[in-house]
Write a structure and sequence with these properties.
Blueprint lengths: L7 H9 L1 H33 L13 H40 L1 H6 L2 H5 L5 H34 L11 H4 L5 H20 L2 H22 L7 E6 L11 E9 L4 E2 L10 H7 L2 E9 L4 H31 L1
Antiparallel strand pairs: 1-4, 2-3, 2-4
Helix pairs in contact: 1-6, 2-3, 2-6, 3-6, 3-8, 3-9, 6-8, 8-9, 8-11
């Protein structure tokens, strides 16, 4: 976003924070380049390994070193994806902290906002610019980073160390959810800033609130979409569904009544205990990989509603405080 193409308060916002914007853009490009290079190294190692005639599953004499090197490269790529996922989960907090601190909180604390308001810029226009500029940049930037992560994750699925879609640091780095969390943190930062009007306390409140939202969403996520249930009769081999997030596993009677997981844990005769309680099958409640998008869309919708509500409250607080 060029400052020359903007006018009014939005242009001022870009000029005030252009150094941070340049640094953030450079870091994002560096992260994308790192993931791309890491996958190039991994795919090159796979091509080289396939030419050796060795096999990971059936290692023979003379293949120990090639197999070890190949697995080491794949493992490092897996770890890079894990770290990148954690970084994607931290990114929304960074957006919120920046809005709560340097962008809004500091101006309200130092009183520099009066300069803008004395130049025919209303408090509402001032806050709108403070939110619109980072919102546009955040949606664009996080969308690109999320797409790059999804691309890298899809490549990792074919390795010996696949990263599962339901792992928190993976789920939170793909799809629309990262954008939803980033916009929510932006709204959290703005609301904290106009309420507290002090930089560090506003940033602290934003960080705590974001952590609370993440914990709550992680705990309720499995209930956002109906789970699938598979049952296996006792005596038959019980198999977990592949690439699925299992939520609950246990036993049930012939009539469908579910038994507590600890029903026969301490029993000396497990089979006899199961028979006395009428257990007839083992069940598993889970979300298959096909539930990724329904879960993501519902969660993102919740986050956007919360963000919109917080932005509305922030504008109302500002109008009440300054007319």
């Amino acid at each position: 976003m060029s400052a020359l193409a903007l006018r009014g308060p939005a242009r001022v916002v870009v000029l005030q924070h252009r150094r941070v914007l340049w640094i953030t853009g450079a870091l994002a490009l560096a992260g994308i380049a790192l993931v791309a290079v890491a996958w190039w190294v991994t795919s090159t190692a796979a091509t080289t390994f396939s030419g050796t005639g060795c096999s990971v599953r059936h290692t023979v004499h003379g293949c120990g070193i090639p197999v070890g090197h190949f697995l080491s490269v794949e493992l490092h790529f897996n770890r890079l994806l894990q770290y990148a996922g954690v970084a994607m989960m931290i990114l929304p907090a960074a957006v919120g902290l920046f809005v709560a601190g340097p962008m809004i909180g500091r101006e309200l604390e130092d009183g520099t906002y009066r300069l803008s308001w004395s130049q025919s810029v209303t408090p509402t226009r001032w806050l709108a610019a403070k939110l619109a500029v980072p919102a546009v940049l955040t949606v664009a930037g996080v969308s690109v980073l999320s797409a790059v992560y999804a691309w890298a994750w899809s490549r990792a699925r074919g390795t010996n160390y696949p990263v599962q879609w339901f792992e928190p640091q993976v789920y939170g780095a793909m799809g629309p959810a990262p954008v939803g969390y980033a916009l929510l943190c932006l709204a959290l930062g703005a609301l904290a800033a106009v309420l507290i009007r002090r930089t560090l306390p506003a940033m602290a409140v934003t960080a705590v609130a974001y952590a609370a939202v993440v914990l709550v969403m992680n705990s309720v996520r499995s209930g956002l979409w109906p789970m699938r249930t598979d049952t296996t009769a006792l005596g038959r081999e019980f198999r977990y569904p592949s690439e699925a997030s299992d939520v609950s596993v246990g036993w049930m009677t012939g009539g469908g009544t579910r038994l507590d997981d600890a029903t026969c844990v301490s029993a000396g005769d497990f089979d006899g205990c199961m028979a006395r309680h009428g257990a007839a099958a083992q069940y598993v409640d889970y979300h298959p990989a096909s539930h990724f998008w329904p879960l993501q869309l519902i969660e993102t919708g919740i986050l956007l509603v919360l963000a919109a509500a917080m932005v509305a409250v922030a504008f109302r607080v500002l109008r009440r405080s300054h007319g």
